[in-house]
Amino acid sequence: MNATITLLPGDGIGPEVVAEGRKVLEAVAARFGHTFTFTEALAGGIAIDETGDPLPDESLAACRASDAVLLGAVGGPKWSDPRAPVRPEQGLLRLRKELGLFANVRPVKVIPALADASSLKPEVIAGVDLVIVRELTGGLYFGRPQGREETDRGRAAVDTLRYTEGEIERLMRVAFDLAQGRRKKLTSVDKANVLASSRLWREVAHEVARDYPDVEYEDLLVDACAMHLIRRPASFDVIATGNMFGDILSDEASMLAGSLGMLPSASLGNEPPGLFEPIHGTAPDIAGQGVANPLATILSVAMLLRSGLGLADEADAVEQAVDSVLAAGHRTPDLTAPGQPAVSTQEMGDLVVAALAQQ
Ligand code: IPM
Ligand code: MG
């Protein structure tokens, strides 16, 4: 297969982890006889520094012209002044919107070799294998009006939480389809006891559920979901929710797996390109030190291969390579106790490439 992949390394540890993701893609291409062409483009804080725009038109055009996009992370203290006119995160939000990436798929799986890296008891996290499907181009992130105003009682600011039935329905269908290929259980998360948008969410979710009688369906309020994710995480299969709730719950759920450094994600629309990225941020405190865990990016590469390019065997091979490297005991510092030996970002990438070659 010939495929064009746009790389958006972004800020902080982004460039370091994307370099390892690319290495793995190159190894996959060599082993399976594909030709991947890479285009690197600016996004985030670095794009603001170089062009004044967190997503220059050129970068968006490169993404649109490609078969899949791999992103590192964007943002950092340098650009986080609350009064700054442009922010790195705006680039990512615009990219999601422009590419129509309405479904963000975030799998959380406890890898047995890492069970002791979680802050929860091993018996609580045993068997955790869930996927959060987060609505990504609507809700509180995109509702208008949004902004600040001066009033006669001082400063005020507003955000708007709005969902249309079409936005809810297409998201629920992605989640139900996914559940059908898994353990056939779907939890829809809302705040229907308070929010009108959540009551519509629930109504539409129930309508869609009728088309999937084989999937066990439950509604859960977001506060209860936050609790049950810690209390009975293994009972969840697919969790479908709105943009803001999904943002928060996915960071919470990531802790089940021990480290944010392990979790990949895919943002998908009706057609390619999809956007694939680790769920962790730019980690400015460790940027440039070669200690970041590249596995979330490498596992995002596996998602890119499977759902972005339709290369399931190649995706399986990458995931197995990661498993075998972890089973052999290799760890980046985020996964080790202080003072324990650890490998660097680059060494971890090399180990995965070597494991791929040995399969
Ligand atoms: C995420 C991030 C983003 C979000 C930020 C960087 C805009 O937290 O992908 O979860 O809130 O969606
Ligand atoms: Mg987030």
What structural class do helix, strand and pairing data support? Answer: alpha/beta
CATH class of the largest domain: Alpha Beta
Number of domains: 2
* CATH topology name of the largest domain: Isopropylmalate Dehydrogenase
Determine the CATH superfamily of the largest domain. Isopropylmalate Dehydrogenase
The parts where pLDDT drops under 50 for at least 5 residues are none
| Terminal CA distance | 21 Å
Main sheet characteristics: 10 strands, mixed
How large is the share of residues in beta strands? 15-25%
Helix content: 40-55%
Architecture (CATH level 2) name of the largest domain: 3-Layer(aba) Sandwich
Count of helix runs: 12
**Shape by Cα distribution:** globular
What structural keywords apply?
359 residues; alpha/beta; Isopropylmalate Dehydrogenase; 2 domains; ten-stranded mixed β-sheet; two-stranded antiparallel ribbon; 12 strands; globular; binds 3-isopropylmalic acid; binds magnesium ion
Report on this model:
It is a single chain. The chain is built from twelve helices and twelve strands. The protein is an alpha/beta fold and 359 residues long. It folds into two domains: 1-104 and 264-359, Isopropylmalate Dehydrogenase; 119-257, Isopropylmalate Dehydrogenase (3-Layer(aba) Sandwich), CATH 3.40.718.10. It has a ten-stranded mixed sheet with strand order 2-1-3-12-11-4-5-10-8-9, with helices on both faces. The chain has a two-stranded antiparallel sheet with strand order 6-7. The chain is globular. The mean pLDDT is 96. The structure holds 3-isopropylmalic acid (IPM) and magnesium ion. 3-isopropylmalic acid binds next to helix 4.
